[in-house]
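Section: Multi-chain targets

For targets with more than one molecule, the full set of components is provided together so that the structure can be written out for the assembly as a whole rather than chain by chain. Components appear in the order listed by the source. The example entry contains three components.
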Amino acid sequence: MKKQLTIAIASVAMLASLLTACGGNNDNNKAAESAGTTTNTGSAPASGAASAKPLKVSVMTQQTAPMPPAADNEIEKLIEKATNTELDVQWIPQNTYGDKLNITLAAGDLPDLIFINDPFSSVFRGLVDQGAFWDLSPYYKDYPNLTSGISETAWELTKQADGGNYGIPRPRPSEGAAFLNIRKDWLDEVGLAVPTTTDELYAALKAIKDKKGITPFPAGVDASGLNLGYLATIESAFTSATWSPSYGGWKLADGKLTNTAFLPEERSAIEYLKKLFDEKLISEDFASIKTDAVNNLFKADKSALIVEKAGNMRNYFDEIVKLDTDFKETDFYPMTTLNGFSPRDPGFNGLISIPKSVSEEKMKGILKMVDTWMNDDVFQYQQWGIEGVHYTVQDGKKVLDTEKANQDGISNYNQIVYVSDPYASSSKDFFEPDTQTLYKQIQDEREKAGSVPDYTVGLNSPTANQNMTEINKSMTDLKIKIILGSAPITAWDDYVNKLKSDATMTKITEELNDAYQKRTGAN
Amino acid sequence: MKLSTGDRVFNWINIVLLGIVALITFFPFYYVIVVSFTDPTEYLRKALIVFPEKWSLASYEYLLSTPFFVKSLGSSAYLAIVGTLCSLAISSSLAYCLSRRRMRGRKAIMLFVLVTILFSPGIIPNYMLIRELHLINSYWAIIMPALSSGWNVLLLKGFFDSLPTELEEAAAIDGCNDISIWLRIILPLSLPALAAFGLFFAVGYWNTFFNAMLYLTDSSKWPVQVILQNILINASTGDLLSTAYTEKPPTETLKMAAVIIATVPILLVYPFLQKHFAKGALVGSVKG
Amino acid sequence: MSPEPMDAYTAPVQPRPAPDQSSRPNRRLRSDLKRDRWLYLLALPGILFFIVFKYFPMYGLVIAFENYSPFKGIIRSEWVGFAHFERFFSNPDFLLLLRNTMAINFMKLFLFFPLPILLAILLNELRSDKYKKLIQTVVYLPHFLSWVLICGLTYLLFATGDGFVNKVLAELGADKWVVLTNPKLFWIMITSQSIWKEAGWGTIIFLAAIAGVNTQLYEAATIDGAGRLRRMWHVTLPAIRTVIVILLILRIGEIMDVGFEQVFLMSNGAVSEVADVFDTYVYRVGVQQGQFSFTAAVGLFKSIVGLTLVLLSNWLAKRFGEEGVY
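Its structure, encoded as tokens over all components, is:
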């Protein structure tokens, strides 16, 4: 045995040298990168610094288009030239970004600028606590686009526990969140107006089903199994609370957050959904059908109601019009509110953060880069691409070759820096002018009626972090069983009664409310 | 040789039975092929497509005109070829040694190998190891950790166990050492096993997805599975960023075409290996 | 069937006499090592591989006993002992998860495991080489399709609303057959899917083993007047017995693992009390929440159970005179 041990130890030593030799062939320019860091502009953000050496910036972000952009493609070169930087972007397919980010954070080799998809994950929070990232709050106000192009709310909501901003929020429109859209042409056929209440919605779905012989709202539960997916929008219309992906349904009333399970309206919502199911207005397969399949049914002219952002209309229109040539853009009709409710998005999507391993000077250089990148003349590169390659100008209007743009993946650069257009979720430049007006008007009406945000965004409850997933899962399972008819509605009452006296749930409620008070009190 | 009635009945039952099995297992693949050639609109309209009315090559044209997709096939082929050869060498040499009963300490080594099947240290230490070896962004980061596995070594050993020992003893008397016995006698005799495990390794490398995503930071080096996964599971972020256009999620027909293009090259390996599974590979050498 | 003729047809397995350890063991050892030096040299690259790529990273298992914090690293993270294990075992659903995991695995062990063996033997009995090659090539195809696709197809076939099967049933005037949301059918559905996708692929290893069988044995058996089934039983099956036993033992070691992706894709709220397994639970609670330590603790638990079972079944196999895994 002893001999084997010595052999083992000797061989490890041998192999170590062998392998390092082997790995030496692979170019690893990390050292070169970090060497290049200190040479650059720490100068006042306003100065042009065109003559200075380009700042080397390594970036890690997600890729949303099917294809990654080629390294050093023309778009990237134009952006680099305009911002006087040398970008080294690591594109990660979005469906695995979370895993890759966790491993990268855990292994500790961070690029200079890194996309944090969930600023409130325990991993990121932990790293922030330990000082792994730059607090940008003392700096960002020096850069005009970072304050004018990114809303105050976004900066506010992404503050960490100590009140610091450990990353630049990626701005997104807050109005125009995904909500119900209904087939207006079919409503006209059955002589009904666009529903504004759940009762009217029921009547409309029933009339369309009778007339068309289809399942008007196929719905479909979220793949995670943690909420009712498309049906959660109907629940929200009852409870007036926007579902939070991390903490579930929390309603704000009189300055206090209450889990929606405790509201009588939630029970009514379940009963309502059961009624829809029993009358086959939602799919018999709603528990197992995937969202892709649901969307395809709408495209195939086989369903009347869908949860979607109005700005995605053309993805559906282009298909439906092939089957139903009378279909108009505005027949994809975004409902304004249901029972007075409409959801609001948080106004940001993750952060781009700079690790402490980057020098202060370089950190300022990166802020400057983002600031310049947000200028119209730079940002338009990733919106439109290059004239003659990705777009042409016809009658003074730019026309994008979407196929080419997709193939080159130019829109991926939006995953690094983005300038938010407030109507981007609702309307697009290439919609018919009438459609644009209608959709924008609907968005404005929602805003006026008081769209409801997810109030738990940015709140931290350690107990919820550990337990809320399981609570949401069991809650959703029970709802599904009741809707399917395999459990009675009284099971819900029993469940809620038990949950009321559950110590964990009580603690979560306390922690969330404390965090909420702390935030609103600080304002 | 005359067949008895029982044999003949058995033959027919066997032929029919296996035919049915083949039809059932062929269905998923058939479906993928058919959908890949279907017009996207027709796909949406029908619930289950058995035969397309309108054939369309559009999905293939689109994919094959995408430089990334074609290039990634090359990366995958490189990984599969180099990886398989290295893996076979490492795994079969160790497995052969372990099948020699005279080797002292073989039981300990086998237990040592067995434990690795059951205990996996998790991604982070593996990632750190690859980083310490400076293999990040190198194809070796994919190949090296997959060179062997306990499963493969122990099963290969099972194959070597059943080889007759006479030949080897004769060679030893002729003065061959163990390494040349392995190279000259054992490997040629084990073609069926090497073909089977070569296939396992090749398919394993071809299907590498997560490690490639993790270790290859330069997306131009990605093998085809990374691209394929990105096309298949393109869950919308819910972001609508451009006002100039909306990104269309890949259509189902495009996804299926991507599956076909990414799968067919590795399928083509099988017929070449298949002949080694033919009966009696051993006989000739034993007799001769 | 009588056991007597069996010995006549089995491949000659002749254990070498164990090295004589009676006299002067040290010198014996040294001379053995010297004799086999080339053998050890040949084994060295493989052993080194296992040390570097499999054993070296195992220090990572320590995080199962810590509150692992990426920034502090493995050495400086807070030590919590068995806290994560306690949390895992005290979970009120632990027994449910255990039951579901075991149930799915036992079904796979009894229904799925023997099928590739049977299929390989039947394939081997096909007379026409062309037909044989065709069938072989076809049955292994579904292995190359991802679970996403297979699960999508299952949905197309079995959806309650407009799945293919239910449409046919409706045409025939029969009642609907609820499959996807039926807790009673979940385990068997998962097993059938695995068979559909992997049974053909599983034959490869057995076909390779059968290809190694000395044809003289078949000839001898035929001369002895053994029929088709007897030859399959007495020649083919014994020849691949070693491989079967090894695979079986390794399979038993994986009893705590359920193919995560498949179960995750097929489960839904209606069946979750039979579909929730260790892997899906850990995915929700550990992986998605970035709780590295908890995930590692569950993984370690599964490994230890697996190792115990493997050692136990290997011991049993040896008691029955099999070669076993080690």
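Chain A has a mean pLDDT of 85.
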